[in-house]
UniProtKB/TrEMBL annotation, chain B:
Pfam families: ABC2_membrane_3 (PF12698)
Location of the protein in the cell: Membrane
Positions of the ABC-2 type transporter transmembrane domain: 152-357
Organism of derivation: Ferrimicrobium acidiphilum
Residues annotated as transmembrane: 22-40, 167-186, 218-243, 255-281, 287-310, 322-340
Main location group: membrane
Lineage per the UniProt record: Bacteria, Bacillati, Actinomycetota, Acidimicrobiia, Acidimicrobiales
Keywords, alphabetical: Membrane, Transmembrane, Transmembrane helix
Protein name (database record): ABC transporter permease
Topology within the bilayer: Multi-pass membrane protein
Amino acid sequence: MLEVRGVTKRFHGALALDDVTFTVKASSIVGFVGPNGAGKTTMMRAIVGITATDSGSILFCGNPLGNQSSLVVGYMPEERGLYQGMRVRDMLSYFCQLANCDPSTEVAQMLDRVDLTDKATAKVESLSLGNQQRLQLAVALVGNPRLLVLDEPFSGIDPVALERMQGILHERAASGAAVLFSSHQLELVEELCDAVIIINHGRILADTALAAVQRDLSVRIRYDDKPSQERISILETFGPTRLTDGRVVEIMLSDSTNAGRLLDLVLSQGGVRDFHLGERPLTETFRTLIGKDTADAR
Amino acid sequence: MRLTPVRHVAQRELAVGMASRVFRISTVILILAVLAAVVIPKLTAHRSARVVVDLAIPGHTSINREIQSAAALTKLQVIIHRARTPMAANLALRRGQVAIAVEPNAIVVGHNTSNSATLELAHTLAAELGFARFAAHLPPHERPLLALARPLDVRVLGGHASDSAEIAVGLAAIILIYSLLSTYGYRIAGGVSEEKTSRIVEVLLARIDASELLVGKVLGIGLLSLVQILMMLIAYVLAASLVGAPIPLGHSFSMILVTLASFLVGYAFYATLFAAAGALVVRSQDVYAISLPVQIPIIVGYIVGFQCLLGSPNLFDRILGYIPLTSPVLLPALVASGTFSFLDVVIALVICAVGAVGAMRVASALYRTSILWTGTRPPIRVLLSSRSQGAANRI
C-alpha cells in the first residue's frame, strides 16, 4: 500500500534521510523505531507531504502520494497541536470539513470512538492531557484515512487510554488501513505491531516482520561470582555477549540450535545460579543494531 | 489551489472572529463612535450664518433678495452685515466675524467658519447671483438663454480648497483605515503564530496546502473586517435617518468609496505580510515585535495623512500617495485635501493592487519557509532563498 523508495533529505548539508526504502502493507501495523534524531519524524513528515524530499518517491497504491495525501492520510504529529480555544465538537467538525466528510454523522461517531462524547462542548484547553491526546487521535482518524501516520501516539497517556487507542488501531488495520507509528516504548511495539522498521542516522537498519525478529534466542546466565574473562571468551563463541551487572551474562544466540550445547557447557563449568533461555526481546535487537551502526559510523 | 478548503478555513476564521470578545467590544466602540459623529454635530450645529456684503458691489442693496432666497433654500438663518470697504469685509471674514463675504465677482468663505452648511449656502448664493446678473442683462425675448447662466466663483479664504467637513471625513477615513489595517493585520499575525507555536499547523498542512491555509485565513479575517465596516455603515445610515442628518452623497460618498477601496487594496497588500511576520515568530509573545516592521509604513502613512489634512501637502506627500506601502492610509487624506484627482486615485490604487500581488508572492514564500521552522528563527539566507514551491523545513 505505502511504498517509500530511495528517499533522501538533507537539511542545509546535514543528511536527515539516506536512501530510505520500506513498505507498509494494507491491514498491517508497523512500528517505526530509532533513537532521537534518527529521522523518524522527518520521514513521517515527508510521507504526509509537509516536508519536501530531495530525491526518491513515496507511493500510495502505486501512485505518488503528493496531492492525494490530504484525503488518504491521517496524521498525528509528535508535538500535539490543537486550537486550545475551540470546543471539542467544533474542532472535529472543522477537520471533517477539511477531510471532505460530513460532520453531522462523523463527529458523533468519532467522539464516541475516543470516549469524548461527554466532553463534546468543552473547550480543548479544559481537557486533561490524556483527553487532548484522544482528541488528537480523533483528528487523525477523521475521514477514515487509508493510511495512518502516528508520531509517538502513546506518549503520556494512562493505561486505560492506551488500551483504548490500541484497540482503535487494531480496528483501523482490520478494516484495511495501513498504520505506521513511531514509539520509544519498544514493548508496546512488540505487542501491537506486525512489523518493525528500525532507523538510525537516516538509514534503515532493519525492516522486517516482528515474528522474524523475535525468532532469535537470548540466554541470561547468573553466576555465583563474577565470571572470569576466560569464561566470557568461551561464551562469546555462541554469539554477542555482554556482562550486565557483574554476575549476569547475556548471550544473543547466533544459532538457536546451540542452546543445548551452551547449557551443557555452562553446567560443566559450575558456579551457575540461574540459566534463562527466552526469545530475544525487541529491545535487544534494537540495541544491537543501533550499537553496531553507531560503531560503524565512527 | 482548491477552493473548498479555502472556504472552510475562511468560514472558521469568520466564525471564531465574530464570536470573540475583542471583536464584539471593538464593534460596539466603533458603532458608538459613528453614532457620536452623527448625533453630536447635529446637536451642536449652528443653523445660522452671518453674511457680509461688500458695499463696493454696485447695487448691493438689491442682492438682499438673492441672499434671502439662498437662505431659504438651504434652510439657514442669515444675518446680513454691510462692509464699508472691501478691506473691512475681508477683515471681518478673517476674524471669523462673518462666514461669507460677497465680492463683486465671487463669493468668499472664511477658512475658520467653513463647514458644509456655509459652503452649501455659498454655492447656492453664487448660483442665485449669477442667475440674477445674467437675467438683468437679457432682453425679455432672450429669456430662454437663462439656462446658460453661470454661478459666481466660490473660494475659501486662504486658498484651501477643502472645507472642514471634508477634513473631518478625511481624518475619520485615515483613522479608520489605520485602525482596521493594524487590528486585522495583528489578528492575522497572531493567528498564524498561534497555529505555529501550538503545532496545529502540522496537522492542518497534512490535510490542506499551505497556500490554501494562508488564503483562507486572509479571506476569513478580511470578511470579518468587512462585517465590522458594514455594521458601522448601517449604524451611520440608521442614526442619520433618525436625527435627520444628511446621508452622504456627492463628494462625501466619493470619499467613502475611496476609503473603502483604499482599505481593500491596503488589506490585500498587508494581510499576507502580517501572515509572513506571524510565521517567523518563535514564541507567541514575540508577535508584536516581529510585526512592527510591517506596521511602520502604515504609521508613516497615518502621520503624513494628518499632515496633509491639517497643513499643505507637498511633493513628498504626493509621491508617498503612489507608493503601495503608504498609499492605502494616505489616499483618503490626499483626496480630502484636494491634492489627488480622480485619475491620481485610480493610478495609486492600480499601483497598490499590483504591489499587493507582488507582496503576496513574497509573503507566501516566506510563510511556507517559516511556518514549520521551529526552535529558532530561519536564517536570513534561507528566507532570501525562499521559493514558492516546496517547504524548506527542518527537524
